[in-house]
Amino acid sequence: MKPLESVLLMLFSGLAGTTAAHAAQPQAAAVSPWRLQPVTLARGGGAGTAAAAMPAAPWASHVFALDDGSYEDSIGMGTDTPTATQAGAVWLNRFHVAEAVTVDSISILWPTQAAGTLVGLQANLVVYHDADADGDPGNALRIGSDHLVTIAAVGAFQTYPTSFAVAGAGDLYIGFVDQWALAGGYKPRLFPAALDQSSDQGMSWLAAASTPPTDIVDLGANDLLGTSAQFGVPGNWLIRATATSGVSDVIFRDGFETPDAGVAAGGAARS
Ligand SMILES: [Ca+2]
Ligand SMILES: [Ca+2]
After folding, report:
1. DSSP letters for 72-132
2. Is 237 exposed, middle or buried (0-12, 13-18, 19+ CB in 10 A)?
3. Tens of pLDDT along 64-87?
4. Beta bridge partners of 129
């Protein structure tokens, strides 16, 4: 695996001091303490293809996906020296909705590991609502509370039922926390986020604290917050979701509803 400190030093020169007051320009400040910080991002090198294409979507659902079904790398936060360890982070895909919805499932493709396995570990599913939809989730509101799920298999999408109720229009940031490693120092070092590098939709995000633990309630309280490209690994996390609109749908005479939205490809136009 190749450490990314040099890339990160460049990309994050400027995040120093952008803590709770984190505003609209996450890369805009002045001095980086990066070399003093113990936790960095690295690649796990795994690759694979999803066994199944999309999670099944019920009628009247939004289907959220950014990836092409195959991942070319896997990514994790942690340390390389003196010992390789993992630190938990918040891995998120951004989507836009024009109305209140309930996120009723989240699907994640867990990547295979060069060493160790994710099977048996518990991840925390998370959803954040950025009502101002300005491309900065630093002030996004976390929806609901911890939703721990067990990783049962790798290399294929695992679909977990959820009930995250989002009150209105805006951007949704949907994903997971590698909860087992949240305190940092976890061994062996694992790479929980499968990355589709065939394209970069600019909608895959990562929030982390350079000194663990990552704040999973207030994303803006973390000194590392940006898109995968801003972390030097452009691409899309293999995180998908479905959501059901809170409004009533058209009912036809034959009794079938029409879907009120199609695939939302990575957040539509911003205001
Ligand atoms: Ca791919
Ligand atoms: Ca915002």
Report:
1. SEEEEEEE-SSS-EEE--EEEEEEEESS-EEEEEEEEEPPP-SSS--TT-EEEEEEEEETT
2. buried
3. 999 999 999 999 999 988 889 999
4. 141, 172
- Which-ligand-closest: CA of 69? 1
134 CA distance to ligand 2 centroid (A)?
5
Query: Which amino acid is present at 28?
Result: A
Minimum-distance ligand to the CA of 25?
2
CA 261, CA 259: separation in Å to the nearest integer? 6
- The amino acid present at 222, given as its one-letter code, is N
Q: How far apart are CA 126 and CA 57, in angstroms?
A: 19
Give yes or no for a contact between 261 and 249, defined as CB atoms under 8 angstroms apart. Answer: no
Q: For residue 235, give the ligand nearest its CA.
A: 1
Ligand closest to 26 (CA) is: 2
Spell out the long-range contacts of 138-144 with Cβ–Cβ below 8 A and sequence spacing 24 or more: 138/22, 138/23, 138/24, 138/26, 138/219, 138/220, 138/225, 139/22, 139/220, 140/171, 140/173, 140/219, 142/216, 142/217, 142/218, 143/103
Measured in Å, residue 44 CA sits from the centre of ligand 2 at: 31
For residue 73, the one-letter residue type is D
How far does the centroid of ligand 1 lie from the alpha carbon of residue 269, in Å? 24
Query: Whose CA is closest to 169, among 218, 133, 201, 216?
Result: 133
pLDDT at 257: 40
Distance 188 CA to ligand 2 centre (A): 35
Record the pTM: 0.77
Tens digit of pLDDT for each residue in 132-145? 999 999 999 999 99
d(Cα 13, Cα 29) in Å, to the nearest integer? Answer: 8
Rounded CA separation 8/2 (Å): 12
32: its two tokens:
């980086």
